[in-house]
Amino acid sequence: MSRRRQIYEGKAKILYEGPEPGTIIQYFKDDATAFNAEKKGTINGKGVINNRVSEHIFTRLELIGIPSHFIRRLNMREQLVKQVEIVPIEVVVRNIAAGSLTKRLGIEEGSPLPHSLIEYTYKDDSLGDPLVAEEHIACFGWASQEEMQDISAMAIRINDFMAGMFAGIGIKLVDFKLEFGRLFDGDFSRIILADEISPDSCRLWDIETNEKLDKDRFRRDLGGEAEAYQEVARRLGLFPDGVSEVLDLDSERKKRGK
Q1: Helices marked H in 168-223 — which ranges?
Q2: Tens of pLDDT, residues 5-29
Q3: Would the pTM of this model clear 0.85, i.e. be above it?
Q4: What distance in Å separates the CA atoms of residue 198 and residue 239, rounded to the nearest whole number?
Q5: Distance from the CA of 119 to the CA of which of 113, 152, 180, 228 falls in 20 to 30 A?
Q6: Domain segments of the chain: what residues?
Q7: Are 160 and 93 in contact (CB under 8 A)?
Q8: At the topology level of CATH, where does 6-83+225-242 sit?
Q9: For domain 85-206, which architecture applies?
Q10: Which residues of 65-81 are buried (b: 16+ CB within 10 A; e: fewer)?
């Protein structure tokens, strides 16, 4: 990794220049942050699991017509993606009341919403990713009306697909965050799904027990973060030879500097 040109390092990933023009290598870290990076830590093996989970979901979404930046997984922690211009809006899709929604509106956590709710936040860590309306997005030119129509339509389709996929393995899709980017072809651009979809960006609860299987275990000091991430991967059938064996191999490779 040291011989490659680093483009950007975020809270959960590092981006490197890709092998071909218009590509980027996305490296998944074990670093965990919460509350706009006020709380920091690590979740052992998180990067390996998020890489595999995100690959799985993006690949399946592509099959139902959701275009994304994902090209292919390169190894346990890296995937090759298309270079896009990120739209500075985070899209939050909610099915059940949790997180900031319960605090803002005084709704009891776990209350099913009458229908899925889409919220938008302005992607700026220094401002705490403030909640914005579509009027703000249009006023400041963060995305065009046509782009927002594409974004909202894809968000709804993604939610419908993922809710069914997770329900099939005994998990409630409480809410999740999406990011989108502009893929350019000359002067023309189109909106595609970007970033990642993983237990970092989703709230996932066991259907029977409501046990949290996502980053809320880290946010709330519940413990068992690594086991929760591994359980999601296990239910998705992503590590048929065992998660622990893959994580042990990853640990050995990191020790050797590979």
Answers
A1: 216-219
A2: 999 999 999 999 999 999 999 999 9
A3: yes
A4: 15
A5: 228
A6: 6-83+225-242, 85-206
A7: no
A8: Phosphorylase Kinase; domain 1 (3.30.200)
A9: 2-Layer Sandwich (3.30)
A10: ebebbbbebeebbbbbb
Helix (H) or strand (E) holding 201: none
Select the more confidently predicted residue: 35 or 192: 192
Q: Per the structure block, which two tokens stand in for 74? A: 């390169």
Q: pLDDT tens across 165-213, in order?
A: 999 999 999 999 999 999 999 889 999 999 999 999 999 999 999 999 9
- Reported for 121-124, long-range contacts at CB under 8 A and 24+ positions apart, including other chains, are 121/89, 121/90, 121/92, 122/88, 122/89, 122/90, 123/86, 123/88, 123/89, 123/90, 123/179, 124/88
Retrieve residue 171's tokens: 């998990």
Q: Which two tokens stand for residue 164?
A: 């069914």
**pLDDT digit string (tens) for 49-74?**
999 999 999 999 999 999 999 999 99
85-206 shares the fold of 6-83+225-242: no
Contact, 217 vs 203, CB < 8 A?
Answer: no
CA 209, CA 41: separation in Å to the nearest integer? 27
